[in-house]
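User: Can you predict the 3D structure for this chain?
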Amino acid sequence: MRSRFGVGTVFCPCAKSTVVSRFAPKSTLPFSRLMHAFTSKAIRNWLILAGLSAWGLLVVSCVTADRTIVAPPQIAGAKYVGTKQCAECHTDVAEHFTTATHARLVTHGAGALDTGCENCHGPGSLHVKAGGGAGTIINPRKSPETCFQCHLDKRSQFNLPHSHPLLAGKVTCSDCHDPHQGDAIRGSGAALASSTETCLRCHTQQAGPFTYAHGAIREEGCTACHNPHGTINDKMLVARDANLCLRCHLSTLTSGFNIGGYKSGGAHANAVGSRLSEGTCWSAGCHEDVHGSNVNASLRP
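Assistant: Here is the predicted structure, written as structure tokens:
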């Protein structure tokens, strides 16, 4: 076997010299010669590379850890007093607070104590000294800025073109979230009903009951189609066109379907030129009753 480098010459990319073999059918490269090919420089380079890789994994694990480190709200001249001090007056809140998602928040530093309440309301010494009252403690219900200190992504969503009027002061975070008891994200996991009920407290027109309810609401809740914090789409829809519907109804399409209409002779053969061509399923007399209908199983008016 001949190559341009010579008969049976094998090059090891990490060695200074070449290892020569005649490729005899029954012969093998001696182990001692193979080990000799790895010079001290090559081994040193390998160790450096392995060390850098291990350090990189450590850095990535720290950066991608599921945790948020932020500075808690501050009140000039106030010091932390601890959750037990808060519980002496706010017994109704303290009774269930250990079950709350926000009870896991931790404040570090000298004198931080057990500051579950003060992580959101700020240090409470002045509030205690004054015997309670407004102006001595932070009330997140009055402003979402306290929530935004941790939930940075939600601040950006509320600044999108279509969102709940939180920044205008017409709604608050606590209208939909309960920071003092249970999971602050209502309806997560298997509790879909509570998520939908939260929306229907305000959006009563969509509550029904309907003879033909939209399955998305029954199975996934309102957030199947809407992002309650804000989107770039009208009505806070997570997609602006027929792609919203096709996320669930893709399996019901017939062969030849496209956004411009169905194949000739199909149920939507005249869709070309209609609003469906522009990407909507719920307009122009089609599936307008998207939340449910009492007269048509296809959610037509």
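The CA atoms of residues 67 and 256 lie 47 Å apart. The mean pLDDT is 74.
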